[in-house]
């Protein structure tokens, strides 16, 4: 079993920044990727960013490229999502996830079914 706990969400004005954190505990050694997804009201859950746990390869949704940065700290079993230049359309509940993508190609890092465990989510609200 793996437990994920997110933190760092909140209310920020457009153009501002937030940093989300996700601490993993439990049997994390068998997982190879951690990702961030988000879900806005009345919308499907969508991919935001992912990182391969060992190599550190990163993957981003087009909508956040150049604004968001995903990183990880092995010693702390933690993945971060630095979010800059936030826009009102970034408002959503952000979820951290961990899993083992079937293949080491970008597509498999972006789909929810590659991830076995999910956090409870943290709300990010960007005001205009």
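^ Assign residues to that structure.
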């Amino acid at each position: 079993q793996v437990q994920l706990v997110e933190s760092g969400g909140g209310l920020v004005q457009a153009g501002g920044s937030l940093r989300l954190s996700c601490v993993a505990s439990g049997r994390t050694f068998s997982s190879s990727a951690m990702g961030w997804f988000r879900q806005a009201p009345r919308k499907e859950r969508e991919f935001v960013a992912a990182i391969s746990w060992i190599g550190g390869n990163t993957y981003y949704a087009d909508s956040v490229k150049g604004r968001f940065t995903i990183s990880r700290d092995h010693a702390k079993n933690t993945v971060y999502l630095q979010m800059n230049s936030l826009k009102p359309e970034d408002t959503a509940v952000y979820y951290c996830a961990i899993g083992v993508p079937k293949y080491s190609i970008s597509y498999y890092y972006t789909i929810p079914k590659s991830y076995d465990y999910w956090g409870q989510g943290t709300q990010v609200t960007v005001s205009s």
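The first strand starts at residue 2 and ends at 7.
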